[in-house]
Design brief:
The protein is built from five helices and 43 strands. The chain has 806 residues and is mostly beta strands. It has a 22-stranded antiparallel barrel. Strands 8-15-16-11-12 form a five-stranded mixed sheet. The two termini are 28 Å apart. The N terminus is likely disordered.
Length: 806
Amino acid sequence: MQKKAFLLLFSLLFCCGLFSQTITQTIRGHVVDTDSKFPLFGAVITVMKDSSVLGGANSNDKGEFLIQGIPVGRVKVSCTLLGYGDRKFDNLMVTSAKELILEIDLEQSAEVVSEVEIKATRDGEVMNEMATVSARQFSVSETDRYAGSRGDPARMASNFAGVQGADDSRNDIVIRGNSPQGVLWRMEGTDIPNPNHFNIPGTAGGPVSIINNKYLANSDFYTGAFPAEYGNSISGVFDLRMRNGNNQKHEFSGQFGFLGTEAFAEGPINKEKGSSYIASYRYSTLKLFSLLGIEIGTDAIPQYQDGAFRLFFPGKKNNSIAIWGIGGASKVDILISRQKTPDQRNIYGNNDRDQYFKTRMGIVGLTYSKTISEKTFVKTTLALMADEVDSFHQLVFRHLDTKNEYSVDSLINLLRYNFRQTKLSSATTLNYKVNSHFTLKMGANVDAYRWNMLDSVRTSLIPGTIDYTQFSTRWNGIENGVLIQPYASLRWKLNDDLSFSVGLHGAFFSTSKSLSIPEPRVGLKYSIKPNQTLSFGLGRHSQLQPLYMYFYKPYNDNRQPNRDMDFTKSDHVILSYQIILKKNLRILSEIYYQKLFNVPVEINSSSFSLLNTGAGFSRFFPGELMNAGTGRNYGIEFTVEKFFDRSWLFLFTASLFDSKYTGSDGVQRNTDFNGKYALNILGGKEWNINQHSMLNTGLKITTAGGRWYGPADIAASNATRELVFADSLRNSLQFKPYFRLDLKINYKIDRPKVNHEIGLDLVNILNTKNVLKLTYAPDENNDPNSSIREEYQLGFLPLFYYKIDF
């Protein structure tokens, strides 16, 4: 039956591919000034395929343009306006089902021009004029094109130089050897909680992203020395933006695949007024993996669902209101007590307990934007956010019977915790273009927190034993706090080849009474030649500690010894050189140095540092900490990139780096994430089968140095039934290098008003066994030396999907 259904679907799509009628679509959009967002009249928009002009239009007094009758397929779009830099879009995809809508920002020239062409903005360049180094724009088309990215912005970013994502079970981002918890997620100008399913307090990643790339506009990703508007991060920033829906035509999408079943809709609310909506919903279908016998690292079936919406209402006087929201819920029950054989894997939890785990996250926001004049633009966002983590553990005692199968002796309630965080956030930014040389940006982010934390665990009356006769409370209470972050930036554009930016950022956190003012940010960008650019950036950055750690209470102690922890701080210095060899080929190299200080370490002499936390599925339980630790990262990065052109693309990134830290024992060690090197080779090719169908293929090779660890203290681990490392030997050993080969194939067919796509993302096609971590797995045969073992990452993972747009 399944074979017949597959053959029927294949035959349908094949017949669709034989359709020969010329299919056309509409391209339209909006042209504005980069700084003031003022609509630009008279911009010339041209659509081309190879050297042939397919159509064109001029923007009206509202900055709007409309070009009809464009044949489906790859096209190039250029936008020019006297006195402004050109904007070019190469290899945009025009499909039969959806109109192509472009939001075009043009930057004013610093020089008086008559009829000379100003340098065009290229692919990959961020539109934030204050950014000079370590910044990259990514688009929805990129996330779909990269093999192994699974449509996840975080996994897509792991292809960039200086970024590691060498963990198949999670999308944590390690930037230049920093902890992944140092990454800031931002949506519509506001800082948002961890936007991933099954997230753990104190982390910034997870197994599956709540963010769906279908409703994202082009967004920016920063890996260091980011502009003054970004704070509460010491390593990197994801600045995500939601796009507006089509305000003239209703469009729909449906998708079915191993990672979820999705529905998506967009269209006009009122065509005359230009208002629009977007709505998205996804539900997991991971049970398909178990039905097909595919390993996903656990016998449990994770369940999740997420959704998003955006309502956009433009005003009559260059203002607009957007009401938007995203949210997701997930749960998984990892039941070790149901295992029958001793060799079951479980990379998502502990191997000695049943675990019931739930997470929820939701954001509702309102964004008001107004172009006050040709020089002034203001944007304010108010958002209410809430996230919750709930977990319940039961310790499993069992033995192997005569059939070499597990038999459960008893289940003991071990721990229960529920962490809830509610946040009311406001973000206001003002852009003022003094003239073509000077642009001022200023604003403030204010976050008002409310935490409700409850955690209790069964502990032993006698240290080192496992009688578990009492419960101890580690968190219990309702807390409030406020984080205030003002900033100001000034860009001085001396001419079209040289620009300089300077900014200040400040931060105050009421809970710990921490103050970080000022934090200077400086950037310089100089075009040595038309095809060569030299850039420089430096800045001081600070970040709060994981918020739950401020309120931790040690066993039998009512104090909160870490409530007054200060910001961790980091100084970045970066030098960048870029050369454009051909129209779509660039080479980029960056060297950097990062100094970290004020890092929390234990008051008692030890190897611990908070720089090593933030990855995995376990919380950290701090002792009494002080801001006396240090760290340093330095390295060099190379990027060779051929942007998608003439039906293929290529990306090569290489990073050589060193990441060290010092704990309270005064010994300098490798950080957990000091892999020393990371290498990505990625390519993609598009094959035109006929006028209305195409085959896309992509290949990716990833290799990186292994994570660092230390030998386990076997006696202490067996006594406490959890993994305990020998403190003095921490990070003296390194796992084997990571290697993975991914392949992506998808087939697209255009029919009148309908577009079909079948895709297959083959992750780790060589089934390489990469070590993930050491784990404590108690030995029922009472061999104390067999309780510690290596846990491996995911093996071969085929991800299938079918999508229809109409």
